[in-house]
Amino acid sequence: MQSIVSYPDRGPYGKNSYRGNCSGLLIKDLIQQYKLKSLSDYMVGGGTTEDVCREMRIPGSFTDLSRGFDMVDMEMPDRPQNIFWHPPYDNIVVYSDNMYKASEVQRVYGFDPRKNDLSRCKDWSTFIKMLNHCMVKQFAALAKGGRMFTLVGDIKKKGTLYSMLCDMAKPGTLEQVIIKAQHNCWSDRQEYSNRNFVPIVHEYLIVTRKDEGLLIPVSFGNHAELNLVNSHAASWRDSVYAFLQKSGECSLDDLYEAFKESPKIKKNPNWQAKIRQTVQNARYFTRTLRGHYMAAAA
Q: Looking at the whole model, is its pTM more than 0.85?
């Protein structure tokens, strides 16, 4: 294998009608590359991993919500040596009541799979929270020295990019990130009027290794808002400009009030004079009245 892989042919593995199935050839390459003696898949979906392992005579556990295993609420059934995981990509494909009947799962196994179906989350933050819960839960069950192979992708909705790679928890030792080309995507058949839209034609395979049994390093992709008024990195010009651009016309007293608690003033005891000096830059600021300013038009 190399750091970029492509499988135009998915191979004779899994149900080809099960949307979101990855190519079984990827799983075959992983088994050969890492010389795996066993491989489990607890969201096996259409059965691709199971079919590959059967052909290669590799043992493992293979289950799914549709087979009666709720990863969110139930205990992991065993301690696997290696795990392959291809979670839903938010609600791009909804599985319960589409790929299988929720009522049948409820009849046979006694629970409603729609409750903890990751493809039915109400929003991205809920999806990432549940995704991380499942990621860490599986990694905790992993045998020491084992590997977890997680296939994820990016999603675009209404002009915003949502990245599973950036936002998800990555426990253990990050060993490799492999770029996998996508083929025969639904988006391949679409025409986009927005010329700035770049179609997504790749996925990421994250390889993490469990080197320690108790203390596990975890990398989280956290999001926060930065108010430029409180930023050490932003210059006075850019901080004042951003404030005026947001607030509209303001007096110097308004600016003093806005910046009086800013950590920026700790480095400048003459900070009020610095604000007065800053707004004199006619390229970026316009005086509307005596002592009143607004951000100049871009």
A: no
